[in-house]
Amino acid sequence: MTQDTGAASAAAHSGAPDDVVTIKLPAAGAYLSVLRTATAGLAARLDFTLDEIEDLRIAVDEACAMLLTQAVPGADLECQFALGADSMRISVSVLTLDGLEPSRDTFAWTVLSALAGEVDSLAGVDNRVTIALLKRRSGTGQ
Questions:
Q1: Most buried by CB count within 10 Å: which residue of 49, 63, 97, 125?
Q2: What pTM value is reported for the model?
Q3: Under CATH, domain 2-136 is a member of which superfamily?
Q4: Residue 123: CB partners within 8 Å, gap ≥ 6?
């Protein structure tokens, strides 16, 4: 696990996150509890409510589950948490077999959108697929 910390005043003026935490682990369901715990801890650090923390934990779990079905055997799952003053942007990515983005017209995508606030996905040229979540703290224009 790595953590990059920048000057808070520079981040506030540039719109950049205050902190970025990246976790890289094997793309296997057995490791998802690590990401759920990290998500809860980081959201608590930003003073998210208990309900918002639980929503984020479930959203990260759901995003990972969607990606793990496509993951190349033996690949790593990478999760990046960008912490702002009143929001958290989470990007989960994995090298996939087909490089296809998850379908947006599924029940899983609907649940993910309801839990996280803003959701997007991106497929890279190297078959790496990313799901990005943006959750704002209550009262900040969610």
A1: 63
A2: 0.83
A3: Histidine kinase-like ATPase, C-terminal domain (3.30.565.10)
A4: 99, 100, 101, 129, 130
